[in-house]
């Protein structure tokens, strides 16, 4: 019985997506050439992976002459959010609190990171308060 196809990115897929986000529209050969020498994959491996990414909806192509030119259809930030939601669902029962406590629990959080987290929490609280006020006005 075949496995269900995952919408998360494998390491190889993520490497190609990072190149696409960096370069923009490009051919498979452009992707191969842009890879660091030590991590360079064969053309056929890149082609196979880019086709999988297209099946997953992360990439689309258009024909330019005889070559296909590929473009990311998912922004990097959207892919990051999707992966975080996947991890949160899979490991933390859809609990943002449990996810954040796990992130903070390793003790490696710098004071600068804590300040940024506090600012993000304050902004989230302000946005929630605005939504609550708008909802009360609508009722």
From TrEMBL:
Gene Ontology MF terms: DNA binding
Pfam assignment, any one: Penicillinase_R
GO terms classed as biological process: negative regulation of DNA-templated transcription
Record keywords, A-Z: DNA-binding, Transcription, Transcription regulation
Top-rank taxon: Bacteria
SUPFAM superfamilies, per database record: Winged helix' DNA-binding domain
Entry similarity comment: Belongs to the BlaI transcriptional regulatory family.
Record's protein name: Predicted transcriptional regulator
């Amino acid at each position: 019985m075949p496995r269900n196809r995952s919408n998360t990115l494998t390491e190889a897929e993520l490497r190609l997506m990072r190149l696409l986000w960096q370069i923009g529209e490009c051919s498979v050969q452009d992707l191969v050439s842009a890879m660091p020498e030590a991590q360079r994959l064969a053309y056929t491996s890149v082609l196979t992976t880019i086709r999988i990414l297209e099946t997953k909806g992360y990439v689309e192509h258009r024909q330019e002459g005889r070559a296909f030119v590929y473009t990311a259809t998912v922004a990097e930030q959207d892919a990051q959010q999707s992966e975080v939601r996947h991890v949160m669902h899979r490991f933390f029962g859809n609990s943002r609190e449990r996810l954040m406590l796990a992130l903070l629990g390793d003790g490696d959080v710098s004071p600068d990171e804590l300040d940024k987290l506090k600012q993000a929490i304050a902004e989230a609280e302000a946005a929630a308060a605005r939504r609550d006020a708008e909802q009360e006005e609508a009722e």
